[in-house]
Write the structure tokens for this entry.
Amino acid sequence: MSIDRSTGLRMIEDATCPGCGLLCDDLTLVVEGGRIVETRGGCDRGQVWFEGRDDHSGGPTILGRSASLDDALGRAAELLASAKAPAVWGLAGSSIEAQRVAVSIADRIGAVVGIEGADPAGLRAFQRVGEVSATFGEVKDRADLIVYDAVDSSPIPERFRERFADEAVGRFVPEGRTGRTIVWLGCSDDPHARSSDFALKVPKDRQVAFYAVVRALVNGIAFEQEPVLRSTGLPLASLVEFAERLKRAKYGALVLGRSADSSAESEAKLTLVRDLNAHTRFVAIHVGGLANGSGAKAVLTWQAGAAGDIDFGGGYPAHCPRDGVRERLQRGEIDLALIVSNGDWPGDATPTIPCILIHDDHDPSPIAGLVEVTFPTARLGIDEGGTVTRTDGVMLPLRPPFLGRKTTQVEVLLGIEARLKDRSR
Amino acid sequence: MSLLKIAGGHVVDPANGVDGVADLWIEDGRVIPSPADPSTRPDQTIDARGDIVMPAGVDIHCHIAGPKVNGARSMRPEEPRRAGFMHRSEIGRSGTLGSVPSSFSTGAKYAGLGYGTAVDAAIAPFAARHTHHELADTPIIDKAFLILMGNNHYVMERIRDGDRERLRAYLAWILGASKAYGVKVVNAGGVETWKQGKGNVSTLDDVVPGFEVTPRGILTELARTVDEMGLPHPVHVHGQNLGLPGNADSTIELMTALDGHRAHLAHIQFHSYGGDLRTMDSQVGRLADYINTHRSLTVDVGQVMFGETTSMTADGAVGQFLRKVTGRKWLSHDVELETGCGVVPITYEDKNAVHALQWAIGLEWFLRVDDPWRIALSTDHPNGGSFLAYPQIIALLMDRGRRAEALAKLPAKVRDRCPLGDLPREYSLNEIAIITRAGPARMLGMTHKGHLGPGADGDVTIYRPDSDKERMFSLPRYLIKGGQVVLDDGDLRESADGSLLHVAPERDGLAEAEIADWFNHRSSIRFANYGMGDDEVANTRRVEVGGGS
Ligand code: SF4
Ligand SMILES: [Zn+2]
């Protein structure tokens, strides 16, 4: 923290932005009174995160009526303790500290846990074949070839390109942009395609074939023109050229936006990157997503052995892919949900089961008025601190300027847990 | 104030030369001399008559936390399906088992084995924050970790420049900032070479491209600096050519290069092979001779056990090699400025001559190092096998009949290429206590661990003697951790939090400003967000750095 000499305003330097999963940690927040009046260094979305309106929607509620924190915690614990088939859902916008407590509560009450915005298909692919990856700084330091996969139009955060990729100067890419070849996979009329050195238009529904053929070419398998055109929609020559380009790179990076890929599509990408390592160095890099989705996966993995869909119902953490919170809600098998999220949740728009909602009060959840108990809480990075995790696994601290002015998620979760412990004594 | 008396047990405390019946008193978490006043009444007494009382176990080299371990868990959901789960109980969290247990299972299983301390041997400082969170969820045992320095860009640049002062300032800063315990070197310069796609280094005098330093330079400068700083644990080294037939020559070279410095050589079994893939044999004889005659070096074994496990290493090249050999799934993760990481499932099979030879070579190491204080029990968990295999290894060391039986079932080649069958040595209980607690604690410079003299931590394991040594060491009756009875007649009764042991060498503010500048230009995160804040880690316990020169 420092004080701006000309304005006398407090400045928080090296602040981490929870606006998206990129978690830029190079922002400066200018603080005046109880407000952040300027956000330096972030993108528009980051600015909105820090300077957006603060609804101050008041304290906890029980059945829509204001309640004391103590009463609300008591009621939440009572509901959780008596639930037969509870779910804990959300967590991707919470700190590691909050996630650790939330999963502990799930273990205690035998809940099924689901992470908002998780990519179960991608997880299955990873569990089958693994992944060759790197931290963002390796892209900056080494990547002379960067392939952006925007085939499903998932956005690649501009700040990733700025800070670690296109123009970035790195140890082995001292020339910056001219030292890097940028390839854009997506729609050719995409404006980003024009800022790249090469673009390939890959039809969304042909991704598996496209990546499989490129991988086979990389592995030295020869193809006829016609079947390749039929299966990928692209002429063989362009795929051969692409495959050669990948192999020629010294250190390539396939950058994947937040994916809606099927597990076959994910696997096709991960295995191409893996096989390229027989020829050169190549890594898959994931970008985007929610603030701390990667943290939620990490916590669930070290506490319960898998990065999503855990059922504690049997008294132990069973991984239950394809049978998670969403599926069980659909089958009517969940009788209570502890939701830690501001987003849409996978249940009915008007919940038909009792729900306990912990949500950041800056932009209230769509179901805030409709649930049994609500806890409006602080906002990550503004009035709640803790640790968040980038999609490359690097964990960063937050620097909230207004710690202590609002009830935090961690406080609510710890309060619930303490009451659950008391009940079981 | 709480006073515990462990009455009438046979105390095996090699560090204090104790091997006989005695009472042991623990007050407020520490061992105290037996009270002079015979009327002193303890708050609690454990009747240990007929039992063996030892300091709690200390694991000097394992992989239990951080992104590499967690990546392995995440990639291998099939492991708990095979190995099962730990159920939630009154006192403790549920968890998963297998070669990479979940954090709560890891703490509980170490405690169940009579261990009180475990040191994760390979954490990228970049991953310190993750590791601290995970270790905070690893209950009961005390924990520490070593940070990976052998492919660190700043380190290599300073060594290239011959700037010893800055190198030392950097180590002081990074150890403190990451709240680490010591310095690890994994395939010095080789991981960086591999990350560049330029193969690997294979001798100590290869030059690391772009950095103009040699593995020899990295190793000796780090060893010297660690010595000069007086860190409790010397430089902890994973050598070159891990797992490759014929690597024994480079291991001798490494030992020779480190001569004159204190150094610990990790999972030495994996570095002790002669021949090529077809003619691979044991070279333990000459390597163990070197250790026997050079007192500044210590080793841990990295014993291989047959069965399913997960290999994991900061040596990215080894990960890729194992992927090629096994054809199995592969997690690789390059960490900027610091290291690589490779994870591949592996099944050690007794029918496989190479695997069987690795098993025999590990045991040969235990039997050939004369002084048990210089060799520590490890499986390089989970690389050679799980830490849960320690009782099996102990039984093999204590009983040559058991060894002969196991050896007879292995491919004939093994008996030709490794003299294990000719070694009659059997470990005594006292020697087992050395290689599992007293020795590793001394190697780590943890003066409060591994012994039961006054002032030592009240970390005690009580075993019921049993002719079946595997059963005896698998099922301790009691674990007392910091004076608290955690394992009570075979049942886990308490799930306390262990401490995080770390060093905090004196820092140099001026040098740090330069380091910050260097870092902010090169890293993908800000310097200010790299180190651990003072309030970020709970239950820390600082281990003193011995002045040095
Ligand atoms: S890219 Fe994401 S993390 Fe970075 S400033 Fe924008 S919203 Fe924040
Ligand atoms: Zn190891």
